[in-house]
Hints:
Elements: E1 5-11, E2 44-48, H1 57-60, E3 63-65, E4 85-89, E5 93-97, E6 103-106, E7 114-117, E8 148-155, E9 161-164, H2 171-178, E10 196-201, E11 207-212, H3 228-231, E12 239-245, H4 254-268, E13 277-282, H5 289-303, E14 309-312, H6 321-333, E15 360-365, E16 368-372, H7 374-382, H8 388-400, H9 403-409, E17 417-420, E18 423-426
Parallel strand pairs: 1-3, 2-4, 9-11, 9-12, 12-13, 13-14, 16-17
Antiparallel strand pairs: 1-8, 2-7, 5-6, 5-8, 10-11, 15-16, 17-18
Amino acid sequence: MFADRARIFIRSGKGGDGHVSFRRELYVPDGGPDGGDGGKGGDLIFVVDPGLNTLVDFRHKRKYCAGDGKEGSKRRCTGASGEDMILKVPAGTIVKDAETGKVILDMANRTEPVVLLKGGRGGKGNQHYATATMQAPKYAQPGQDAKELWVDLELKVIADVGLVGFPNVGKSTLLSRVTNAKPKIANYHFTTLNPNLGVVDLSDGNGFVIADIPGIIEGASEGVGLGYEFLRHIERTKVMIHLVDAASVEGRDPIEDIKAINKELEAYNPELAKRPQVIAANKIDAMSEEDCEVLMEMLEEEFDSQDIKIFPISAVSGKGLKELLWYVNNLLKELPEEPIEFEQEFFLDMQEDEPEESIVVAMEEPGVYTVEGPKVERMLGYTNLESEKGFEFFQRFMKENNVLKRLEELGIEEGDTVKLYNLEFDYYK
């Protein structure tokens, strides 16, 4: 099954919390703090796997989470780091923010793994917070939170040339004739459902990758038929070959078909209409020479002014294919070699470090709560709580730093005691 879209949940690992402990050994009664640091959370990593060509694996599993870092331990031991989560995707995969639809990452030209969500930093143990005035700190830094996101994965095939046209004009036949691809071919009155890729191998190392883009119908840019399912795969192609039924076997007008396709391409993405195009008038083996000449004159009159080259061909007999392929090959040499890459539109908060100062809120015993940390200690050092303004600042500090909220989450009730080092307060709303 060809799957070119998937929505998944991704999450990096949370950093492990720092540890609070004190050195206790025989003959060392006051050994001081020795709490170790928490381990780093695992990263969420994307990497291109050349052996993949669909996103089908992501249809069966939707959540991908890296491992959390472990808490530090006594004797200054650092907690174990969380395990990375590595997601293997096919080349050409785009990662988009599910909510906004904006591009976060394009894996078209990535040869190295890309860390999309960095794991949380481990918190520092209480060994780091000993000072001359606070030689036995009872707090440690919590680990940095994990980062999480819902993303849409979209596979846009990587091909130099896109073969476009209405259904049943002979695209699959042409692809099978000029490449080693083996698409299913029959006189169906519906279209190929999967984009087929093949390599055109010309002499002296010349050649290119060509994609048979499933047949476009009018209104595709607005989602009619399978709409975006098809147009998505044209976006990376550098050159487009418009294949038309020159013999009008099914009563189609070749000129109107080309205009209709260009209209859909421009409506979907205006940049597509600006890319080099070539017209391949197929099925000339079903026409008389006179009718073929008349049609070529009509096509040239209509499209010469747009600098679009026209080739009469037969995908069945092979007539005209050599000239068409060499022209496209030389046209590609004038264009950049790297696949077209989509610019990043959505920027994640990649801040690696939070402020090292932390506030630890804990319940010492029922009805008694403690609030400690470097930030609290510093605030108490420059705040005069006996003044009205100083006490208002203190109350604002407690609110803005979510201390009151965290006390309520721990179940504090009116009349309970809150300790801030050598200070004690009664709690009232």
